[in-house]
Amino acid sequence: MELAPGLRRIGNDVIATHLVVTDDGITLIDAGLAGQWRDLQRELDAIGRATSDIRGVVLTHGDSDHIGFAERLRRDHGVPVFIHSADAARARGEEKTKPAIGRVKAAPLLRFLAYSLRKGGLRTRWLTEVQEIAGGQVLDLPGAPEIIDLPGHSPGSVAIHVPDVSAVFVGDGLTTGHVLTGHQGPQPAPFTDDPAAAAASLAHLEDLQVDWVVPGHGAPWHGGVPALLAAYRAATQVPGSDQT
Question: What is the pTM of this model?
Answer without folding.
Answer: 0.94
